[in-house]
Amino acid sequence: MTHVYNFSAGPAVLPREVLEQAAAEMLDWHGSGMSVMEMSHRGPEFISIYEDAVRNLRDLLGVPANYKILFLQGGGIGENAIVPLNLAGLSMAQPATVDFVRTGSWSTKSFQEAARYVQANLAAGPRAGEGYTSIPPQESWQLSKDAAYLHICTNETIDGVEFNFVPTVQGDTPIVADMSSHILSRRVDVSKYGVIFAGAQKNIGPAGLTIVIVREDLLGHALPICPSAFDWKIVADHDSMYNTPPTYGIYIAGLTFQWLQKQGGVAAMEQRNIEKARLLYDALDADDFYQNRVAPDCRSRMNIPFFLRDESLNDKFLAGAKARGLLQLKGHKSVGGMRASIYNAMPIEGVQALVDYLNEFAGR
Asked: From CA 204, how far away is CA 185, in angstroms rounded?
């Protein structure tokens, strides 16, 4: 089999060691005679898988004891509705006001979806006609006095903008952070956030699994219209087993958590990710043949969009990359250009192979 490097933004590359273990255990998990896909979610075999995954994730992120870790279906787009349905009850006024900072395509989707259930206030965003290339200075944010929560997307998968700070809020307003595309790639002080959620298909496992980390005092505030399967209080009370969870996704996530621990944990991965991102950005910045349009202090370590100076060469660039085994480099259809997603499972050898190709193609 030809070796390739997969730069897809999601579903994305998984650690080879994880895939090999899953393949070895496909027909018989630990002598049970069953595949994990065949197990009852309430049986002792799967409960042990689930409990290990929760424990290891709590250890990797340093999740405080007063936070619940939930495994749900729905993905990031699903959570854009599930979050306001769970937290709008924090406000005495209905509809509740929720503040949003728009820094890219995903925070925009969150804003638009939440507006169906709450009064969505655009606290900050780009000026008219500007693209998403930076994070507005916090002193320019127009935060509400009585917001139920503040929503941010800490890493924009499509636009390549990443937060490098935790926002300051008024009073005890909880911060809700969509960390889908950089969770477990850098250290995070979970206690600074009320809720962290992430789709698994970037840095954790297969599509279909969503992880929610929620402070306990934020449970029990769901609107009456919130489906019971997505009411965080109900899900927490049943240890994510109120309905059948995405069992195989949880299993793969658990293997990924074990792999991360073997790599030295999140702190060690952060240093690797800094090195990988620096290598790629240095190559893109070397001359004006390629262009990254994101402000340097907001550049994502995970998702790196770039453009060729002469975009008539795009198809030729992609064809040459594919011939080299460098896959999924085409940018999102909404922005065009190219994008390299270099998640935890992407080895530095893959980034170096891409850099070598960038240099060769520009030279030709």
From this structure: 10
243 assigned ligand-binding residue = yes
Q: Look at the block and give the residue holding tokens 């297969």.
A: 206
Distance CA 335, CA 134 (A): 15
pLDDT at res. 228: 97
Q: How far apart are CA 185 and CA 284, in angstroms?
A: 22
Q: Which domains does the chain have, with CATH numbers?
A: 17-262 (3.40.640.10), 265-363 (3.90.1150.10)
Q: Is 108 known to sit in a ligand binding site?
A: no
pLDDT of residue 287: 87
Asked whether residue 106 is marked as a ligand-binding residue, the answer is yes
Q: Give the total residue count for the chain.
A: 364
Task: Indicate which residues carry an active-site annotation.
Answer: 106, 178, 202
How would you classify residue 222: left for phi > 0, otherwise alpha for psi between -120 and 50, otherwise beta?
beta
Output the CA–CA distances (angstroms, integers) from residue 145 to 91, 95, 111, 121, 176, in the order listed.
11, 15, 18, 11, 16
| pLDDT single digits (tens) 273-290 | 999 999 999 999 998 999
Q: Answer positive or negative: Cα dihedral of 346, 253, 53, 196.
A: positive
Beta strands 97-101; 150-153: pairing state: parallel
- 42 annotated to a ligand binding site: yes
